[in-house]
Write a structure and sequence with these properties.
The chain is mainly alpha-helical. It folds into 3 domains: about 10-85, Orthogonal Bundle (Fumarase C, Chain B, domain 1); about 95-255 and about 270-345, Fumarase C, Chain A, domain 2 (Up-down Bundle), CATH 1.20.200.10; about 350-410, Orthogonal Bundle (Ribonucleotide Reductase Protein R1, domain 1), CATH 1.10.40. Helices cover about 65% and strands about 5% of the residues. The protein has helices at about 10, 15-35, 40-50, 55-65, 70-80, 95-130, 150-175, 190-200, 215-245, 270-295, 305-330, 340-345, 355-365, 370-385, 390-395, 395-400, 405-410, 420-430; strands at about 135-140, 145-150, 175-180, 205, 250, 335. The strands form 3 sheets. It has a two-stranded antiparallel sheet. Helix 6 packs parallel to helix 11 (about 305-330) and helix 10 packs antiparallel against helix 11 (about 305-330). The longest helix is centred in the first third of the chain and has 37 residues, at about 95-130. The mean pLDDT is about 95.
């Protein structure tokens, strides 16, 4: 039983209360570092540590007047601290707080997404093993090709999820940088040791170089990773939507008791979760494009990126985490129609063995051109007349000169498609 999803754990990272708490922590850590450097008296540091706090409503009230979120925050903190607040934010600029806090939030959100990816990976492992040898038709260009197994589909999605996990780890590492280097990043009014101290306490690395901001290619890598995860989810959802079509009906989303599919047609059972996921992936991809547009800023900074990030980063992290929950739930409860899978496997009267016939004729010394021509001719006849491909081959005088009954038995054998499935699973580490 999968618990009902709650976005609260990841959404809480982006609440004002959390954001201001991180800002305050950064300011207090900076004060600690300044005190270690002898720039803030110990007595003043203790007062700051004891009294520093904030009130979200009051900050927003002040911001209405000053039109600056960091100034509003500092003003509110100063109301609690008193005269010693003059040491808070000393030598720093707003982006020292904003960007370092944003990196910390993105790192925390990324770690939650990583956990969701790992849960999804485990589900795919179970399904891949469960259906490892369940033969089904493979399709190319939406047309029947040759047999695969349902387990191989799940194994493929597992492999993609593995890559997404590695991408997410890399993105988290890249975003885990802070910046406390002053107005244009030169440390003119603050020691680099303050940045080093604060970042270490937050589990971040100092950005090797910055302007007034951390450069936005870093954020774009993170957002592009979320876009890749969303697109991989959409790929899986799209496949399920196809396999749930009435004419196919090999897989189907679970349909819960009391659920209804249509206000007009009581018979409908629609792939609503898969469709929802396909739609949400478009939002995440669009947000990643906005993140790319944030990279080219004017000179040492402008704030054209700021308003965008307040929307796209929280929204995308929450969306991707939600999408991972929903796709995991979908796969966990997927309905498999083995009878339809078998029916569709046999739908083309054996045409799916055409390559096996071709290769066997070549093995028997027929030229590839001649073999292809006659196999294609008989395949088209089988398709048009809906006759057994194997029987048409057996009745053909040219083919009978090359292939005997044992050859036909070897060729028209579904188990041939299974001979290297174990090899693929071993290579994926799934055995």
């Amino acid at each position: 039983m999968i618990p009902r999803y709650s976005q609260e754990p990841i959404a809480s990272i982006w609440k004002d209360e959390t954001k201001f708490s991180i800002w305050l922590r950064i300011e207090l850590l900076a004060c600690e570092a300044q005190a270690k450097l002898g720039l803030i008296p110990e007595s003043s540091l203790k007062t700051i540590q004891k009294k520093a706090r904030f009130d979200v409503k009051r900050i927003l009230e002040i911001e209405e007047t000053v039109k600056h979120d960091v100034i509003a925050f500092l003003t509110n903190v100063a109301e609690y601290v008193g005269p010693e607040s003059r040491f808070i934010h000393m030598g720093m600029t707003s982006s020292d707080i904003l960007d370092t806090a944003l990196s910390y939030q993105m790192k925390e959100a990324g770690n939650l997404i990583l956990k969701s990816l790992e849960i999804f990976r485990r589900t795919l492992v179970r399904k891949a093993k469960q259906y490892k040898n369940l033969l089904m038709i493979g399709r190319t260009h939406n047309v029947h090709a040759e047999p695969i197994t349902l387990g191989l589909k799940f194994a493929l999605w597992f492999d993609e999820t593995q890559r997404n996990i590695e991408r997410m780890k890399s993105a988290i590492k890249t975003i885990s940088v802070g910046k406390i280097s002053g107005a244009v990043g030169t440390y003119e009014h603050i020691s680099p040791l303050v940045e080093k101290y604060v970042c270490k306490k937050l589990g971040l690395q100092p950005a090797p170089i910055s302007t007034q901001i951390i450069q936005r290619d870093i954020h774009s890598q993170y957002m592009s990773t979320l876009s890749l995860i969303a697109s991989c989810i959409e790929k899986i959802a799209t496949e399920i939507r196809h396999l749930q079509r009435t004419e196919v009906l090999e897989l189907e989303e679970s349909f819960s008791k009391g659920q209804k599919g249509s206000s007009a047609m009581p018979h409908k059972k629609n792939p609503i979760t898969a469709e929802q996921l396909c739609g949400l992936a478009r939002v995440v991809r669009a947000n990643s494009l906005a993140a790319l547009d944030n990279i080219p800023l004017w000179h040492e900074r402008d704030i054209s990126h700021s308003s965008v990030e307040r929307i796209i980063i929280p929204d995308s992290t929450i969306l991707v985490d939600y999408m991972l929950f929903k796709i995991n739930q979908l796969i966990e409860n997927i309905v498999v129609y083995k009878e339809n899978i078998q029916k569709n496997l046999n739908l083309t009267n054996g045409l799916i063995f055409s390559q096996s016939v071709l290769l066997k004729l070549i093995e028997k010394k027929m030229t590839r051109e001649d073999a292809y021509k006659i196999v294609q001719q008989l395949a088209m006849q089988s398709w048009k007349e809906k006759k057994s491909f194997e029987e048409l081959l057996k009745k053909n005088n040219i083919i009978s000169n090359y292939l005997n009954e044992k050859d036909f038995k070897d060729i028209f054998n579904y188990k041939n498609a299974l001979k290297n499935v174990n090899y693929i699973f071993r290579r994926l580490g799934l055995n």
